[in-house]
Design a protein that fits this description.
The protein is mostly helical and 78 residues long. 97% of the residues lie in helices and 0% in strands.
Length: 78
């Protein structure tokens, strides 16, 4: 009987080890997922910054064009 108990204990221990391994694997997977999410958020932030910059440039360009048109009209009147 003690042999069977010993075997049962070993199996339980092995099961426990397996569970721990699975748990560690899950934790690693979660960390990887978190890292990917952070990277994704950083990329999005960068993209938004670029878009904002682009819009600012466009506004500036439009203002310059308007100024140019006003100058041309002013020259024509003279």
């Amino acid at each position: 009987m003690p042999e069977a108990e010993q075997l049962g204990g070993s199996l339980r221990y092995a099961g426990c080890k397996q569970q721990t391994a699975n748990s560690k694997q899950q934790t690693a997977s979660s960390k990887q997922q978190t890292a990917k999410s952070k990277e994704q958020r950083a990329k999005s932030k960068e993209q938004r910054a670029k878009s904002k910059e682009q819009r600012a440039k466009s506004k500036q360009q439009a203002a310059k064009s308007k100024q140019q048109n006003v100058k041309c009209e002013g020259d024509g009147a003279g």
